[in-house]
Each structure stands twice: as structure tokens, then as C-alpha cells.
Amino acid sequence: MKKTIPKGKSETKSQGAAKHASTRNGASREKYPTQTNPHGIPDYRLEIPNFRTVEEWVDGQFRYKVEGDLSAEPPPLRESKYLNKDQTIEIYRYMLLNRKMEQTLENLFKQQKVIGGVYLGLGQEGCSCASAYALGERDWIGPMIRNQGALLVRGFKPRDVMMQYMAKSGAPTGGRDAGSHFGDVHKRHIAAPISMLGDLIPVLSGVALGARLQGKNIACLTWIGDGGQSTGPTYEGFNFAAVQKLGVILIVENNLWAYSTPVDRQVACRDLADRAIGYGVPGAIVDGTDPNQVYDVSYEAAQRAYAGEGPTLIEAKMMRMRGHAMHDAAAYVPKQYIEYWTKRDPITRMEKYLLAKGWLTEKSSRELIDSVQREIDEDREIAEASPYPEGSTAAERVFCDNTVEIPFLYGGLKLRNIKKQRLAAVSDVAHFR
Amino acid sequence: MATYVEAIREGIWEEMERDPAVFCIGEDIGVYGGAFKVTEGFIHHFGSERVIDTPIAESAIVSAAFGASLTGMRPVAEFQFMDFISCAHNQIINMVAKANYRWNAPAPLVLRGPSGGGVSGGPFHSQNPETYYAHTPGLKVICPATARDAKGLIKAAIRDNNPCLFFEHKFLYRRIKEDLPTEDFTVEIGKARLHRDGRHVSVITYAAMVYVAQEAADILAKEGIELEILDLRTVAPLDKEAIANTVKKTNRVIILHEDTKTGGIAGEIAAIINELAFDDLDAPITRIASLDTPVPFSPPLEKFFLPKVEDVVREARRLRSY
Questions:
Q1: Chain B residues with beta carbon closer than 8 angstroms to that of A412
Q2: Which residues of A fall within a CB distance of 8 Å from B55?
Q3: Where would I find the beta strands (DSSP E) of B54-191?
């Protein structure tokens, strides 16, 4: 396969853990031991806050409040077992690109240049970008609305996302669908999401199945929220992957809020990673605002996928820092949450980490930010200049023409344990009446 | 001679031999060979990698088929009964049907299984859910009535670049048989078939109702009334030209289907006739369909529910003398 994604990425991530032995950056297991939760699921977080959302009535008004202590200062990032300096900086750049792209989308929204709503992944950029970065070229992702950073890591440009939101003809769907609802089969291997939640999980299982029928164990990364994981297709799809040992990596982004409903009203369990036990697959808990933790577990999950060991369920704990979409001021979120998670902003923490390690200087950091801003500004111009699609094109492409050749992505059928047999005459098949 | 069910099985088998992209996925299709034995013997020949038994999870089956199709495979997914297609409705109409339109992702997959009544299957093993899907742009909906068409159309569906829903009629599985061509053949999707030539009244129908119309035609022939029977074969896309042509020929038309009446495809066909052949009508368009009730279980109840030969005879006489 041609090397097409992602731009500027100097190596694929599929060569196995051994390669990384030499690139370890001094991570010390002793310094940050991994804990396990009460059900034995490894928890890589460096802080395990104890809080929950409860309800109260004040002056006849129903509202949510936080129960628990949220006064702690944020810990440093966990040292990555696998990432080197260049890779870490590249992830950081994608996170910046993600953030600045969404800031631009917000501006475009306020200027009424966006059709419909804008969905932001503020506070979740580290999770989207670092997990997608852990994949290799032939792997697939199935993004959710807050994983726009992952689209960038896989090779789409900020302009693509902007044009999607502005319903322009130059957008990947040419204005046929909105926002992050786009994909790319052949080049970037991205399955386009639909609005119904959890539905990409069985689809990504099928992609992994299709690849395996062609003799390739690939990793198929998809995300679901604490709300979306309540749906039936989540269970159906992930269970299918578990049964078939397909390399699906499911990151449950527990961002505490499903639109306005707190996670405490979504599930009765404390850690969504506990679900892994029921599926019979490995699970892990990470701090979703720590890109190093996210990368490491995603990387290890991808290695399991390549080895044919099946799916992995990762719970990334973080907080959705804005409303469900731009129209939602999220007034239902207790202020304490905002304060606590603002201190855990992934970009701030990552920058601090890079400066502390000496991998970035004040000067090179500013240059990086400026270069990202330039890219965003250029893309914004291109996106704004793109015309709307011609109305009459709405009638096109409901069906795929049968003259189109649909190629195998992974070289064609390659079975492993099937005895080759000559075609028996069809009439020889055991018949029945 | 091959029965309807054998014809379908031969069709899938031959396509799996011909094209390494084709594989089967569904519940109990492996060692058991499927609830109606459509895939009997497949697992021994093709192996468990290409004949995949799944958990009882229709949404996962459809999605996995779709996902595999994105990598260039051509899955044939079985619903144990087509009634269970409702469990995968969202995936079919939102994920699969819109994929090529939204993001240029063709979905060459076949979703097949037994539908239809007449076997006392009750409300959840007898339905004709085809019209839900005929209403959704991006899907092809196939309902064969003969063994030859069943084989030719399943092969065409497997070769098609679009999602094809293939509604087999379980009443026909082992009740009809015919000689099939020995050479490889397909039947074009979207083309109706003239089942019986006649001059006086047209019956536009499909699937098992073709035989109800045929029985009625035999009775009416003795009275000098010639029924023309048009077997649609596919409900989406509809063969508008064939529909218009038969109306232009006989000027009187009955639309007959086993699906319930309100919102059934007959209403759509009546509208097409109105658009294309209104001036050719000598009598009002007549619909004969099942009652607007769930499919009842007990034989006398189901018999009352389903369209009957005498319904067609009565309406044809009325139209003839209109």
C-alpha cells in the first residue's frame, strides 16, 4: 500500500514494541506505579479523584452539584513508554491544530458562516490525537463528533472540516452531510459516522473482519461517549469483535456529560472499563487529558490487534469542557467541574511537559503555535472561498454504478486453515426437501 | 429440477466459487446450515472463515457485513426470518443506504432471508417488511417468485455494487420447482417479468401472490376473461415501463400484494399508473392486499388475513364488466 498518511509522520507504528526499547525516554515504572481498580482493571491515572454528581433542590430549583474533593492540583503527565521527542511534539502539534481549528469553527459559527451547529472537543484533544497517532497506515478509525483531531492525524486538513461545517462543495461530502460526518475508504481509512450512537462499533468490527479475510490483522479504533455506550449496537458490535477476536480498539470517552445528563444517570458502575470483564477482553483506565497515557494504551491495544489477540476496551476519563454543541451553554454543569478540569487542560499540560523536558523551548514553542495558526488561517481562507454545491447535484450518486470496480483493500481473500477443494457440482450439495 | 430454496443456495454457492470476495454471515448458517437450510453444506466446503456464525445480534450482522464490504468483500448476510430485519433497521437505512451518497462508500452487500406468510408463523415469522426498505433511497429490494428468478436475482444481487435486500418467500421454498439453466446466468434487477399473457385485466404482483393470481387466471379463463400477470420481481427499483405497458394493453388493473394494504407498494404503483397511463384506464385501479392487522397465527385467522384467489376472481370480474 502507498504511504499516504499521516503527513509528516516518519514511521508507521506497527513495527512492534521492540523498536521502542531504544527510544524510551526514561519512563520509570517505580515512579508511577500502575494501580488497579476494585475489579482488577489497570488504572494508569496519576490521580484518582473521588467525586460524583448528585442532585439538589435550592429555592425550588433542581440542579446538579459535585460531591467529593476536587481541590487537588493536577499531576504531571505520565512518562510514555513508547513515544520519543519528535513523536511527542507531533502529537502536540495535532492537538494545537485541533484546538485552533475548533476555535476558528466557533468564530465562523458566530459570523453565521456555519450551517447548523458546531461540536467541540475542547479538553479532549489529547485523547483524540494521541490515540489516532498510535495507529499505522493500513489501520482504520471510526470517529465520533468530538474526535475531529483524529481526522487531522489521519490526514484530513482543517479546511476539510471547516468546509464540512460550512456545507461547501469542496468539503469531503460536497455538502451532503455535516461536520465530522465524513470518511475515506481508500486513502485514510476512516469510516464516516452517523448521528446514531455506537453504530460504528459493529462497522469497525466488520472492517477488521474484512481485513482478516484478506489475511491481515489490522487495528480498528473507534470512540464512544459515556452516553453513547448505553446503546444496543455498542454491545452487539463490541461483543462480535470479542467473539471473533477482531482488533477493535474501543475508547470510551467518559467526559461526564451526555448532552445534559450526568454519567451518574447513564450507568450504575463507577468505571466503564469494567465492561471489559463482561466482554471477556482486556480493559484499561487512563486519564483522557494525558496524551502519553492515551497513546501508550492505544499503542499496546494496536499491538494486540496485529497479533490477532482481539479487541481492547479503554476508558478515558475527562470532561467535556463546553456544551453539547455551540447552542448549549452547559449551565447544568457545576462550576467546580469546570475549574477542576480547566487546570487539567491537555494542551497546557502537554506544553508544560515538553518545556520541562527541554523538548521545546519558549521560542520553539511559540514558533510551533505560530505555524499552526498560519496553517489554520490559510485553510480558513480556502474553506471560505469554496462555493456552495450546485443544487441539482443533490440527485446524484444515490447508487454506485455497477461499472465501478470495487477493489480489495488488503489484497484479496486469504484463508488460513481451509483446505482447498475443487468445485463440486452444485447438484452434489446435500439437498433437502 | 430445483426448488426455490435450492435455486437460492446454488446461486450463493456458485458466486462463492466464482468470486473470493463473497462470504456468508448470519445466525446458525454454519454447521446447522441455516434455519431453512439455504446454506446447508457450505461450511464443510468453504470453511468457517467464509461461513460465519454470529451472535444473535442483527444490528451487528448488518454492520459487520457493511464494514467488511468497505474492504472490498461482498458479504451475504442472512436474517433467520426477515421479520428480524427490524432489529437492524437503523443500520440499514442510516448507515448502509446512505453510505455511497454521503461519503462515496459503496456497500456491495446482500441482506437476505425468508419473509411472507401462509405457514402459520404468527406475527413475528410471517411479515412482508419489504416496503419499509423500498421507501429508503439507496437500497434495492428484490422479491422473486420463481426458482429461476431466485437464482438469477441472488447472483445479480451479489454482483451488484449496492446494498440489495433479498426477500425470499418461505411459502415457496419447497413448493415450487423448475429446470434451471445449466450455464451461468443472472436476472437483471429492476426488470419485471410477464408471467402470463392476457388481454382483459392486468394483475401487477410479486412473490407468492403470483400463484394466487395464476389460480385466479385459470378460473377466469373458463369464463373467457384473460388475466395478464406481471411479476414485478423487484419492488425497488420498480419497472415503471412494464407497469405502464400492461395497463396500456388491458386498460384494467389489479395490484395484488401480500403486504398489508395501507402504505403498501400498491399505493405507489397506483400513483405511477396515474402518472404514466391515466388516459389508458377504463376502470378504477384496484388494490388487493392483506388486512391492516398484524399477521395472525391461527390458520383460519391467517387465511382470512391473506389475499385469496376468490378476491382476485371477484375483482377481475368486476373490472371486466365495469
A1: 20-21, 72
A2: 236, 239-240, 243
A3: 74-78, 110-115, 140-142, 164-169, 177-178
Q: Out of B71, B95, B137, whose CB is closest to A408?
A: B71
Task: Kindly tell me the number of DSSP H helices and DSSP E strands found in chain B.
Answer: 12, 14
- The residue of A180, A221, A431 whose CB has the most chain B CBs within 10 angstroms, and thus the best one to mutate to test that interface, is A431
Compute chain B's Rg from CA coordinates: 19
A402–chain B Cβ distance below 8 A for any pair: yes
pLDDT digits (tens, 9 = 90+) for A324-374: 998 999 999 999 999 999 999 999 999 999 999 999 999 999 999 999 999
Contact present, B282 and B252 (Cβ < 8 Å): yes
Third-level CATH fold of B2-178: Rossmann fold (3.40.50)
Cα angle value A83/A84/A90 (rounded, 5°): 85
> Which part of chain B is CATH 3.40.50.970?
2-178
Residue A149: closest CA among A432, A354, A355, A372: A372
Instruction: Give ipTM to 2 decimals.
Output: 0.96
B39 touches chain A (CB under 8 A): no
Quote the pTM value: 0.93
Residue count (chain B): 322
Question: Residue B202 pLDDT more than 90?
Answer: yes
Widest distance between CA atoms in chain B = 60
Q: Which residue has the cell 487546570?
A: A343
Task: State how far residue A157 is from chain B, nearest Cα, in angstroms.
Answer: 16
Domains and CATH numbers, chain A: 17-388 (3.40.50.970)
CATH number for B193-320 (one of 3.90.940.20, 3.40.50.10420, 2.170.150.40, 3.40.50.920): it is 3.40.50.920
Greatest alpha-carbon pair distance for chain A in Å reads 81
CA atoms of B190 and B243, how far apart (whole Å): 12
Q: Which one of B64, B98, B103 has the shortest CB-CB distance to A240?
A: B64
CA distance A267 to A356: 39
Extract the C-alpha cell encoding A324.
453539547
Task: Write the CB contacts of A139 (distance below 8 Å, at least 6 apart in sequence).
Answer: A14, A189, A218, A219, A220, A221, A302, A305
The conformational region for residue B27 under phi > 0 = left, psi -120 to 50 = alpha, else beta, is: beta
B residues 156..185 contacting A (CB < 8 A):
159-162, 174
Are the beta carbons of A149 and A121 closer than 8 angstroms? yes
Q: Which residues in chain B are classed under CATH 3.40.50.920?
A: 193-320
- CA A79 vs CA A44, A88, A125, B295: distances in Å: 11, 11, 18, 63
Q: Is there a contact between B79 and B34 (Cβ–Cβ < 8 Å)?
A: no
DSSP annotation string for A74-99: PPPPPPPSS--HHHHHHHHHHHHHHH
Tens-place pLDDT, residues A125-156? 999 999 999 999 999 999 999 999 999 999 99
The single-letter DSSP state of residue B94 is: I
Which of A138, A406, A421 would you mutate first to test chain B, the one with the most B CBs within 10 A?
Answer: A406
Run of H or E including A171? none
CB B21 within 8 A of CB A413: yes
Q: Kindly list the distances between the CA atom of residue A407 and the CA atoms of A183, A203, B131, B200, in Å, as whole numbers in the listed order.
A: 17, 19, 32, 50
Active site includes B89?
no
Residue type, A269: C
Q: How far apart are CA B222 and CA B203, in angstroms?
A: 17
Q: What is the CA radius of gyration of chain A?
A: 22
